[in-house]
UniProtKB/TrEMBL annotation:
<dbReference type="InterPro" id="IPR002550">
    <property type="entry name" value="CNNM"/>
</dbReference>
<protein>
    <recommendedName>
        <fullName>Magnesium and cobalt efflux protein CorC</fullName>
    </recommendedName>
</protein>
<comment type="similarity">
    <text>Belongs to the UPF0053 family.</text>
</comment>
<keyword id="KW-0472">Membrane</keyword>
<dbReference type="Pfam" id="PF01595">
    <property type="entry name" value="CNNM"/>
</dbReference>
<keyword id="KW-0129">CBS domain</keyword>
<keyword id="KW-0812">Transmembrane</keyword>
<dbReference type="InterPro" id="IPR005170">
    <property type="entry name" value="Transptr-assoc_dom"/>
</dbReference>
<feature type="domain" description="CBS">
    <location>
        <begin position="208"/>
        <end position="268"/>
    </location>
</feature>
<feature type="domain" description="CBS">
    <location>
        <begin position="274"/>
        <end position="330"/>
    </location>
</feature>
<keyword id="KW-1133">Transmembrane helix</keyword>
<comment type="function">
    <text>Plays a role in the transport of magnesium and cobalt ions.</text>
</comment>
<dbReference type="InterPro" id="IPR044751">
    <property type="entry name" value="Ion_transp-like_CBS"/>
</dbReference>
<feature type="transmembrane region" description="Helical">
    <location>
        <begin position="6"/>
        <end position="25"/>
    </location>
</feature>
<dbReference type="InterPro" id="IPR036318">
    <property type="entry name" value="FAD-bd_PCMH-like_sf"/>
</dbReference>
<feature type="domain" description="CNNM transmembrane">
    <location>
        <begin position="2"/>
        <end position="191"/>
    </location>
</feature>
<keyword id="KW-0677">Repeat</keyword>
Length: 431
């Protein structure tokens, strides 16, 4: 080494510094890759992506070969720099070479390449995989020994390498990924994807038509009344019962009834023959589960029952789809049968409206963890049946009682433009 010309030693040192920067940048670039984008590129037969994905299946071995190469070139560069320093400055050249090499390595072989790789991981890491993959094969025995010793040391400290869970995402993590996708996913599509993730947090109780609002056909009525109800109904499917909703016989599709009506064959006897068995689901069923159940049972409508078998409400496939794609009208408040817009821009709201529907219509954030309806929420806060004219704040949203019955709040008045800011949803008040 002492016999080599000074120019050659400097050339070797520069080459080693470049290699040091290559290994440093490769580590940062490969570890910064988006694993899901990498998988997508790999499925498109991108050779560099396939090599990088293969290397990342065992990050311990990848880090091993990178650090093996990086430390080797850094140590060799240190020895050559010392030799150059001694030739140029004598014994004091050792300190000069040490200080100079530290600065050069830090700037040109560590900070700069790692910064570039962090901001452009694909551009840096994918070409680097063409070099690292053969190096890993060449030095595999040494890398294997290093990783075995390193992994063994980690086990001593109770650290386990969970390779199987490395590529998994929780629903909350997936939510963050979708939210931060930016312009890569249109805003409307982001909202739909987030709504799908929310299905597991919402049950059929939250979106069902309450028992007292179910529109059905009572076979105990006179046939003339039933026929008129069939011809004037705005629903395509309706439950059929005798006496009350707890004595459900089944469901009827009005298209079948219309066909018989056109053939002048519709009477109570023929009507009974087109009734299909009702489909019951337990209350508390998550929406993502019920969506799959509708698909499996080839149904579009179900009756929600409690643990005693009593009917609590009715849920449809369209209700679940609206949770994903949003309301089918531009103004949810205008389409709700429980919200009536007044001339001054305020609303008269039926107390039986669900909290989720009211939150959607007015873009409020009333608590949904407890009671499901506005009436239930008011009674829970007040702990008594309020008199008409009573005003209260629930989660700092103003509500005025307009009409009550003997055991429930019938109608409330809401001004959507009036709210205390900032809201403190942990408190409420009455006047």
């Amino acid at each position: 080494m002492n016999e080599l010309p000074l120019g050659m030693l400097i050339g070797i040192l520069v080459f080693l510094l470049i290699m040091s920067g290559f290994f440093s940048g490769s580590e940062t670039g490969l570890m910064s890759l988006n694993r899901y984008r990498l998988r997508n590129l790999s499925e498109k037969q991108h050779k560099g992506a396939q090599l990088a994905e293969r290397l990342l299946t065992r990050p311990d071995r990848l880090i091993g070969v990178i650090l093996l190469g990086n430390n080797f070139v850094n140590i060799l560069a240190s020895a050559i720099a010392t030799l150059i320093g001694i030739r140029l400055f004598g014994e004091s050249g050792i300190w000069i070479a040490t200080i100079a090499l530290t600065i050069v390595v830090l700037i040109f072989s560590e900070v700069t390449p790692k910064t570039l790789a962090a901001f452009n991981p694909e551009r840096y890491a994918l070409p680097a995989s063409y070099v690292l993959a053969p190096l890993l094969k060449i030095f595999y025995p040494l890398v294997w020994l290093i990783t075995r010793l390193s992994n063994g040391l980690l086990r001593v400290f109770g650290v386990r390498l969970d390779e199987a869970g490395r590529m998994t995402l929780s629903s909350e993590e997936l939510r963050v990924v979708v939210s931060e996708a930016g312009s890569m996913i249109p805003q409307r599509h982001q909202e739909m994807l987030l709504s799908i993730l929310d299905l597991e947090k919402v049950s059929v109780d939250d979106i069902m038509v309450p028992r007292n609002e179910i529109v059905g056909i009572d076979l105990a009525d006179e046939w003339e009344e039933i026929a008129q109800q069939l011809t004037e109904s705005q629903h395509t499917r309706m439950p059929v019962y005798e006496g009350d909703i707890d004595h459900v016989i089944g469901m009827v599709h009005l298209r079948r009834a219309v066909r018989l009506f056109q053939q002048d064959e519709l009477d109570k006897e023929s009507f009974r023959k087109i009734i299909r068995d009702a489909y019951f689901v337990p209350e508390g069923t998550p929406l993502h589960t019920q969506l799959l159940n509708f698909q499996h049972e080839r149904r579009r409508i179900a009756l929600v029952v409690n643990e005693y078998g009593d009917i609590q409400g009715l849920v449809t496939l369209e209700d679940i789809l609206e949770e994903i794609v949003g309301e089918f009208t531009t103004d949810p408040a205008a389409s709700s049968r429980d919200i009536h817009i007044q001339d001054d821009g305020t609303y008269l709201v039926d107390g039986s409206i669900t909290i989720r529907e009211l939150n959607k219509a007015l873009e409020w954030e009333l608590p949904v963890e407890g009671p499901k309806t506005l009436n239930g929420l008011i009674l829970e806060y007040l702990e008594h049946i309020p008199d008409p004219g009573t005003s209260l704040l629930i989660a700092n949203y103003p509500i005025e009682i307009v009409q009550t019955t003997g055991n429930a709040v019938k109608t409330v008045h809401i001004d959507p433009n009036w709210q205390i800011v900032p809201p403190d949803r942990g408190k409420s008040g009455t006047t």
